[in-house]
Amino acid sequence: MTSQDIPPFPLPNVDQQAWRESFERMKKGCESVPSADPTKLYRAFEKMSAGDIDFDEMPLPTGNGRVISVPLQILDKCHVCYKTANLRVCNSCASVIYCSRDCQKFDWRFHKKLCCESSLAQNPSKRSFRLAKTQQINLKSFFPFIAYMFDTLRRMAPTQEQDSAPIPYPFLDSVFQNLGRRLGRGLEFVLHPALTHRILKAPTPGARKATSSESNVHHTVVLGDKWDLRIKGIPDYKPLSTWWKGHTAMAGMEMFLRIVRESNTFEVTIATSLVLLSELYSTYMSKSVDESGNTTWEPRERFRLEYGQSPVSDFGICRGRIEGKANRVQTWTYYQPKTNSRTTILNPDNHYWLYFRTIKGEELILDCCTFPFGMEGCVDASPCLQQLASMFRDYGSARTPAYFYAPNRPEECPNSHSLIEVARFSVMHNKQLYGALGWELFGGRDPEQHAIVKAFMTKVQGEPCTIEQEDRVRDYRCYGAILLGQVLTGKHWKEWPKPTFHSRDDCFDPRDPKGSVFTKGSTEDPTCNAKLNGMLGLFSDVYGIN
C-alpha cells in the first residue's frame, strides 16, 4: 500500500492529513515484521467505525498469552544453607534468597531453569532456555508516570453529550482523541452533571486552610440549563468562558480540571493497578499458533519495581478515609433546581489509593486522587512524556496530582491531610487475577476472566459494581497498557530526572497564569520531539501475529 492508496479515515470530523501521517508511521512499524499487513489496520478501523466490532473484540493471541510471575514477599532464610543473616534476592527474578555469592553460585545449576525464560520450539516436547533479562524500575523516579496514568485516564471520561445514533461511538474516540469513551444507553448516567449543564453558582476551587475547630467543608454547585461544552481539545478556552456564569475562561479551566479529576477515581485506581501487574510482571507472551495448533512462545524482558535497591514484594489498593490536617477536606454537591436533585460524586470516607511494600518491609503510599478534596500537591510528570507518541502526551502533566511517601517517615508525610486505612487488597499476590490478565494487552474476552475482575472490583468497593464500571475499567486498561508499553519498550524511565514537587496546580491562577507550564510535555511543547515507540502489538492482526 502506497501513501496514495491510503483511504480516508472512517470517522467524521478527523484531520485527514494527520490521519495519513499517523498511518504512514504505523506502516513503517509494520514493515519491521515480515508477516505484517498494514492494510488490515484500516480495515480494523473501518469495522470499528461501523460498529461491527468493539475495541476489545480486536483479534488477539489465542490461549493464555502470558504468565504472571511475582517476587517473594519476605526475606526469611537462605535457599541453600538456611542462614538468616545478610540476605539478598536473585537480581534477575527476585524469587530466591541467598546469603552469599558462594551460595548463589552453588545453586545456579538448579536455579537457572527457573530463572530463565523458556521459549517453546516448534516441537512442544523440546524447550530451549536463555537468560531472562530483568529491568529494575525504581519507584522513586517512576511514580510520576503512574500519577500521570491516573490523570490522563480520568480525562477519558465523557466531556460532552453526543448526538444519539443507532451505533454508539466506538472506544477509538478515547484512544486517539482523549475526548470520550464508548457511550451506550443513558448518557446522563455516565456524564458528570456539571459537564452537561451551565454553572450558575459555585465557590472557587482551591485549598481551604483548616483552623483548630474546622476540618471539613461542604460546597454546593448550582447548575442551570443544559449546556454542551463541546470541548474540542484541552485547553479549549472559548466554551469555558461562557460555561461558568460570570467567570473567565481561566477560572472555567480551573473548575474543569477539578471536575474531571473528580470523575471515576475508583475505576481508574482499579485499572492502573491491574495494568501495573499485567504489563510489569508477565513472564511469557504468546505470538502465534501454527497449523497444528502449537503455540510459539516469544521471550519477553522481565520488569520489577523496586524502591532504592529493595524489590517491591507486594502492591495493591487501600480503601479508607481522608482526614484534614493543615487543609480542610472538601466535598462537592451538584444541585439542579429544576429537578430539585442533588449529586455528590466523591465521599471522603470512601477513598482509594495505592500501597507498595518492599521485601525489607518498608511501606510506601501513592495517592493520586485527593485533588478534588482540596489536597493540591502535584509532581512534574512532563519529563515522562518527552519520548512518547503525540497521542499519549496530554496537557497539564507538569502539575500532576500525587502524594508519594513512606508513612513511617513523618518528615515525608503530607501536612495537608492524612489517610486512614480501613481495608487493603493485594493486587500482586491475588492469584485469581493472574488468570484474568493472561491475555496480551486488551484483557480477556472470556466471560470467566471478566467475572474474576468484576469480583475483585466488588470486593474492593464493598458493593456490587455496575456494567458501566466494568466497561470503564476495561477501557482504561486498554489505553493504560498501550501507554505503559511505550515506556517499557523504549526503557524511557532510565532517563527520567529526580521528580520535582509543587504545592498546587497553579497553571490557571488568574493572578499569574502559566500557559507554558500547562502545555509542557504535551503535543504543543516544542521541546518534545517524540517518536513512535512501542506500538508493536497494538493490533495483533495487523502485525500478522494471530
TrEMBL record:
Sequence ranges assigned to domain MYND-type in this UniProt record: 78-115
Annotated keywords: Metal-binding, Zinc, Zinc-finger
Pfam families associated with the record: zf-MYND (PF01753)
Record-linked PROSITE patterns: ZF_MYND_2
GO molecular function: zinc ion binding
Protein's UniProt keywords contain Oxidoreductase: no
Entry keyword Metal-binding: yes
SUPFAM superfamilies associated with the record: HIT/MYND zinc finger-like
N-terminal signal peptide: none
Top-level division of the source organism's lineage: Eukaryota
Stated name of the protein: MYND-type domain-containing protein
